[in-house]
Amino acid sequence: MAITAKPKAGVWAVLWDLLTTVDHKKIGLMYTATAFFAFALAGVFSLLIRTQLAVPNNQFLTGEQYNQILTLHGATMLFFFIIQAGLTGFGNFVVPLMLGARDVALPRVNAFSYWAFLGAIVLALMSYFFPGGAPSVGWTFYYPFSAQSGSGVDFYLAAILLLGFSSLLGNANFVATIYNLRAQGMSLWKMPIYVWSVFAASVLNLFSLAGLTAATLLVLLERKIGLSWFNPAVGGDPVLFQQFFWFYSHPTVYVMLLPYLGILAEVASTFARKPLFGYRQMVWAQMGIVVLGTMVWAHHMFTVGESTLFQIAFAFFTALIAVPTGVKLFNIIGTLWGGKLQMKTPLYWVLGFIFNFLLGGITGVMLSMTPLDYQFHDSYFVVAHFHNVLMAGSGFGAFAGLYYWWPKMTGRMYDERLGRLHFWLFLVGYLLTFLPQYALGYLGMPRRYYTYNADIAGWPELNLLSTIGAYILGLGGLVWIYTMWKSLRSGPKAPDNPWGGYTLEWLTASPPKAHNFDVKLPTEFPSERPLYDWKKKGVELKPEDPAHIHLPNSSFWPFYSAATLFAFFVAVAALPVPNVWMWVFLALFAYGLVRWALEDEYSHPVEHHTVTGKSNAWMGMAWFIVSEVGLFAILIAGYLYLRLSGAATPPEERPALWLALLNTFLLVSSSFTVHFAHHDLRRGRFNPFRFGLLVTIILGVLFFLVQSWEFYQFYHHSSWQENLWTAAFFTIVGLHGLHVVIGGFGLILAYLQALRGKITLHNHGTLEAASMYWHLVDAVWLVIVTIFYVW
After folding, report:
1. Domain of 353: which CATH number?
2. Which residue from 693, 694, 662, 667 is spatially nearest to 775, judged by alpha carbons?
3. Which of 293, 406, 467, 771 has the CB geometry, 3.0–4.6 Å to 54, for a possible disulfide?
4. Residue 224: left if φ>0, alpha if ψ -120 to 50, beta else—which one?
């Protein structure tokens, strides 16, 4: 019987499929395509920058235009390309395959994360079309410049908050997937090194993102409603902004690096035809980077006037983190040493990385030396070092991953000659662009200057060389785009395992089918290279019973929810706060979450079996809570600093303790009621369960009403624009109130599911997540009562 060819889907059918998909592979492809588009766009911005600096006293761009392009270049390259390509792009596509899973732990949350990420990019770029233009404050948006600049800063800050929400959900999803959905028999120590690198980067991001969120939120609050922690006029400390910002923004350098170190190790092992050298040491080095990465942020602040002891401590840890980073570099070199190297395009990028990243690492150790940092701070030496690490480091790693997994992702091979030409143009262009910038730093050229005089020795010649190098990079970019286009259009069909790899993604078709694996995976994993081990032992792979394959349904509501949240942030950025549109879009967002919660995730009941025995919702929320604890911790630490230094003095009339104690009774009582409601569900007592959940919601509403009345009264007695303690009170207590609303809404969703009969003994993920979040809200409130009402 002849098999009829499946008709080609139309444009609208493809678009609808992308809008509603929850397939980790399609989401990974969208992340990857969007991230590399951001790279290309940031590359265009960099060519404009280098064109302006090619000759002295150039008028190609005005100073304001230069600053806008510089800001968008940095933000687009860092937030939208480097972090995303290696972590959420390749990670979404490859990690479930490497683990032998059908999908990620939370597929619909994964889809929401992507659309929120895309919304953040649009939000940052659309500022160009509003009065005031794009932000011109640099990607670091230092205070007070960011508080006094044009409206483009509002869009940039809103984009960072939306991106942060996307990142936290994505990171928690990765960790939950790695803990819960590994193939039976695959222990943590048998996972591929790339999975370990995604795990390490996700954990680090969950711990540190609070710093960026705090800095962004506080600057946005000052711009919109005049609430400030940093304004010296009311006792604030501008340096506190730097503490918050760099607490995230240096650890994120390792978030930008760790996934690529994993990719490079996978590529090195495959093309050297040998196991990874020092697998366990490499894992420990990655986790060492996670720990030490949170201890080095203040080396960006050596010149702000902190104490000598402060500078010595951070100089020590900055130099120390070179040790685990060096271990990983030696692991890659040791893997290549003595191997039968197959000189394919991905391996070229590995070799280019080793040389260039070593140069970036050495100059990083130089900058850890405080006296040298005084000389080079804010000079082109730092620009060159930064690009050595992230362009020739992470950027080369991104292209190694792209060329390595391209056949698996697209089902097409590419022209090796074009791939190698792309590499050589990038390598030569990179060296010619950034090596002269080290010399410019020695000669004293500051970063972010949009022009310079012709009579400064060495500057015109070195800048011209750097610009020529940038155009060679641009030519390499055109070759790259042509290589990918040619492959998609006419490239040979890729075999399932074109490189002879030994991790599980090479067991699938190219591109993989919707259910990933046609075979039932063995339960023995002797090493992190299962395909090699099984072949050596002669293990026969048997077909999987189709009845055991369960895939989640497509859903429109993750896209809808992300779109309405994006619209909410547009209203916040573009209009005075509060405004009616932000409330409208917030209501539409809530409607989307209700529809999401009431929609069946699977077409028939499915009982999930996880490695840990905990549900995916429980595991995802547990790790998401890590980030929430971090946010409150960093804000409370900042408040304690301001309070203990005497800057934040409580006003004579402050919120009454008896009201706080009343709210404590309400909130603690609600924690008990939700706990007992959960226990009733586990015993199969559905009516008491629903009643207990309803009582919890009512107690939460009463708490919110009491606190709203308290806020209304206190607002008329003390101004957050004039009193620093009042500003801190409204920020932290108000943020907690927002968490009460979020947690209460989660409980309402669980209650609606209970009324619809969608919560069962074995399927109550929404309730688990919401109740865990509610307990967090209670615990944070006890700390708040102590530091604001009692003290």
Report:
1. 1.20.210.10
2. 667
3. 467
4. alpha
**Residue 504 and residue 616 in one domain:** no
Mean pLDDT, rounded, for 598-602: 91
Please report which helix (H) or strand (E) contains residue 608, including its range.
none
What is residue 6's predicted lDDT score, i.e. its pLDDT? 52
Instruction: List Cα–Cα distances, 538 to 520, 522, 530, in angstroms.
Output: 15, 12, 12
Token digits for 729? Answer: 């009170």
Q: CA–CA separation, 66 vs 344, rounded Å?
A: 39
Q: Looking at the structure, do residues 536 and 645 belong to the same domain, yes or no?
A: no
Inform me whether the pLDDT recorded for 5 exceeds 60. no
CA distance 776 to 782: 10
Q: What's the rounded Cα separation, in Å, for the pair 768 and 627?
A: 18
Assigned token pair, 733: 């207590």
Count of beta carbons in the 10 Å neighbourhood of residue 490: 9
CA distance 750 to 174: 24
Helices (H), 369-497: 370-376, 380-389, 396-410, 416-442, 459-490
Q: Residue 597: which domain range?
A: 568-790
In a domain, 760, yes or no: yes
Which residue from 624, 633, 645 is spatially nearest to 247, judged by alpha carbons?
633
pTM for the whole thing? 0.96
Residue 552 one-letter amino acid = P
- Structurally, the chain folds into a number of domains equal to 2
- 361 lies in a domain? yes
| Domain membership flag for residue 233 | no
Look at residue 651 and give its three-state secondary structure.
coil
